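Record format v2
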Amino acid sequence: MPTYKFQYFDGRGRGEIIRYVFHAADKDFEDIRYDFPTWATIKESTPFGQIPVLTVDGKKLAQSGSIARYLAREFGLAGKTSWEQALIDQYMGLAGDLFKEVIKFYFEKDEGKKKELLKNLEDVLYPKFCGFFQNALEKNGGNYFVGSGLTLGDLAVIDIFDTPLHHSPKLMDAFPKLQAHRQRILALPNLATYVQKRKVTDI
Amino acid sequence: MPTYKFQYFDGRGRGEIIRYVFHAADKDFEDIRYDFPTWATIKESTPFGQIPVLTVDGKKLAQSGSIARYLAREFGLAGKTSWEQALIDQYMGLAGDLFKEVIKFYFEKDEGKKKELLKNLEDVLYPKFCGFFQNALEKNGGNYFVGSGLTLGDLAVIDIFDTPLHHSPKLMDAFPKLQAHRQRILALPNLATYVQKRKVTDI
């Protein structure tokens, strides 16, 4: 098996989806986590001055989505057909759209604007995206987002709601099937063990 | 061959990368382009209230990146190995990072802020990203971004600079190898024919 080294900050952010893939597939990897001062010292050694970066047997790959998709293919979590791979990708893209909005809220420094952004997330965006995801789940039978087993699609949806649920714990209450999916996936032994011991961070 | 129907606005934006894939592969598709009033009337019929949407033999797929990657796989433009696919994906992700900044500038309404954003693009971001892309190209021999032939990676880099070059035509002057790549790819007969007759839009 190749040797995997994964570099990111000591938080979830854009790195957690990759850690979820490793843990869901029960694959060993070196989970290197940086604080900001340390990151500044190694930034220049990364391909594009950014993390996450995956190193596979010495070869480096940047960009969260490309790393997650690559590992999902290697570990059998990328769907069984090109169309399934496309659907997984679609849900990742949709999760990415929501992430952009959450990030905007998270980094807003003006307290008034921050409140407005949170209100818009809670009143408009969380219900909208929960609706999209719950409908998609139901159309596929209710257990998984794509095909008949766990894929990166399920992990992407779990991942995208981790931060929102941290500040808005009731956002999924009106979407019981999406909530049930979340609980079921996070109860998978490898994921449950990881999440239980994971450091709690805002993002 | 499947029947492809592609829905997007009548501009480049997030849809052009997909049109590039179709044209580069010389595949027929229905290139449906909406103005804003028409878009408003069909928005509800799309999977997530957004375009681009691809319909393949009646099945719908949303999200620009997932559509582009799916078609690239179908048409042999997605690399020869999973690692090549990952590198293509990495360059798409990097192009996406630049796109976010260009979009920020494009939609800024305050004239003062818009000038500042343009200055930052021209002085900092365009040189930075041109440098990343030119280095990557040189590392792979100078002709293509990934492997030994045209892939979605090349098209993603071409696409991402279309809008910047529209407002900052000299941005690539200090990066002759990146510029040469751009000219060479855009001179491929199918792409040249398409680009020549394409409507000129700001974005």
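The domain at 82-187 of chain A is CATH 1.20.1050.10 (Glutathione S-transferase Yfyf (Class Pi); Chain A, domain 2).
The helical segments of chain A are 16-24, 36-42, 64-74, 82-107, 111-139, 152-167, 176-186, 189-197.
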